[in-house]
């Protein structure tokens, strides 16, 4: 069952502007950045659980000073509700899953949970790291390096296929997407958009990606391949306007 | 209540030797390294819960090939029991806490758990990172760099004092040490032994460290300051014999 999400997007085109007033009592605020995969993790979790929230986007290439009073590391996402401030995408996502109603996304079986977490570490160290290395080459444009990083991403996706096959369920978390699926998906969306790996060559990952595309939470939070490519090309050149491309509210 | 721990230490002085036979049915095996703080995390958890286990130590400066079949990243700790293999110190520790009897170490309150996890991220990015930078200077011996890293560690410990004060309990997890305490403690032990920060100048951290020293799990897993210093001096110079110093069974 899917709970419709009410998202009030307060997108700060006036970057570096004054600190916003605190959120109204009981209102969950997300400090994010439209194209950040770590923010998308949280947005997917909020969408899957049907949690209403408002969003203030931070320009990560020109961070306003006040933001460091919310998150001393200046990273996104951060959530704020009443006197509670929490950051780090996995920690926030787990917190949101624990305290809000809606279907529970966390895997409760200890062994399955451990295997999912171990796989997320692998995914981060391989697919994600090599995706970013590839993305940086969109600026340097060293074809040899691009090919090498693309090959490493492909190798990581093949290991992902093996993990999914061993799992024996359509999604990592089971018969429907769970927390681990939502933590993994944002970089898969970007890899599919930006790295020239043909997912059809890795059928199990293609099937997984296609299934995720049908998920209502994913539908409400995904970006087009074209927008991802436009953003990343601006981002790697340090263009502070990168965050303002595309529609204001997504 | 403290459960006595039976630890069978199979310390491999013959490094790079043949793959050991699998653990006997139902026996929990830890692949570790005597002085590794991430292994000590798990040892503390096992001790606090009174979980019997055997240990095979891996020489991290000369890893045997067979070890990569247990943990593809070649890191420690890894646990093996029957057909289950799990690695990454936090994941293994959570798993052990979930599946073994004994007192539960994980913090269950969602907000408190999130705050503890956020603090562990801070601790890792500040105290731990700067501890290692300081330790590496034991080889290079650049006094200016040593002073700078020492000052950063001290700053991190002051933030730790503030966190503990806000917490309002003797330990991070409450009235007795819990999982977060055991995940944090190993680097605090090393900082106290190796970095010239006088904990007396940071009374809240000193009180915390002293209280941890009285914990039975800590007593069973700690190393002397002298052994830490001897190990780290050998380790930073790449001495493969570093892992064999001290008594065989600790």
TrEMBL record, chains A, B:
Residues 109-236 form the GST C-terminal domain. It comes from Ciona intestinalis. Residues 26-104 form the GST N-terminal domain. The keyword Ribonucleoprotein does not apply. Residues 1-18 form the signal peptide. Pfam families: GST_C_3, GST_N_3. Belongs to the GST superfamily. Omega family. It comes from the Eukaryota. It catalyses: L-dehydroascorbate + 2 glutathione = glutathione disulfide + L-ascorbate; RX + glutathione = an S-substituted glutathione + a halide anion + H(+); methylarsonate + 2 glutathione + H(+) = methylarsonous acid + glutathione disulfide + H2O. One of its GO terms (biological process) is glutathione metabolic process. Exhibits glutathione-dependent thiol transferase activity. Has high dehydroascorbate reductase activity and may contribute to the recycling of ascorbic acid. Participates in the biotransformation of inorganic arsenic and reduces monomethylarsonic acid (MMA). PANTHER family: GLUTATHIONE S-TRANSFERASE OMEGA, PTHR43968. This is Glutathione S-transferase omega.
